[in-house]
Amino acid sequence: MSAASTVAPMSSRDRIVANLEACWQSLDAVCTDLGPDEWRTPSLCPAWTVHGVVSHLTAVEHGLAGWLPESEDDPPPFGKVGEFMTEAESLSGAELHERLRAVLAVRRTELAAMGDHEFDLPSMTPVGQATYGRFMTIREFDFWVHERDIRLPLGRPTDDGGAPAEMALDEVHLSFGYIVGKRVGMPDGTSIAVHLTGPVERDLFAVVEGRASVVDHLPDPDVELTIDSLTFMLLACGRIDPQTAIDDGRVTWTGNPELGDKAARNLRFTM
To answer: Whole-prediction pTM value?
Structure first.
């Protein structure tokens, strides 16, 4: 038996923690060498500068520190989030970075002490009642997207593949039926395929039969979009103008031309 075959598969809890840690390290790295002016650069997230994005990410983890849900109706202490955001307005970029590091150190210790039991606890989340582990997958998504809000306007390189990108994409994939049915508004009896060409390669399929549902395969979709995974995520999160992505060829489609054009312009969803 080979050494590789003896390695136990990573648990859901371990996968979530590993991807969160990767996002935390990458955010820390980009914050390390930001100059004073760069902290005030407008991010891709509307109305927020780089400083505002980092303040938000730090504030939420600050609010989660020391909290575990007692029930699915037990909300995190969001008051701590607002208080931190107010305090962060007066912090320099370097001071905010230090607060980020301190908060993440606390969260690392907390998550390391948690097992499957804690991650399976019923919890309120941004998408409704689920589990604490589900909440942490959404935190990973938030960090992954917001890091691109920072790096792209600053011209900093991004690593848009691998396990963290796959997990972030999962969040959009889960909402693909909603996107197709509510945002695109595809008519009953139609279907769509979105082919992601990389760095994350994946096919997303949905069919409208009364309501839009995600399916594993479609033999003959009415429309097929082809997009790189980063552009797809930026469109889904409302970070870029669809027209720009259409004009420069990052989004193309075949099949029904009207449905293709409509889909390309309406991939945005709100979590």
So the answer is: 0.94
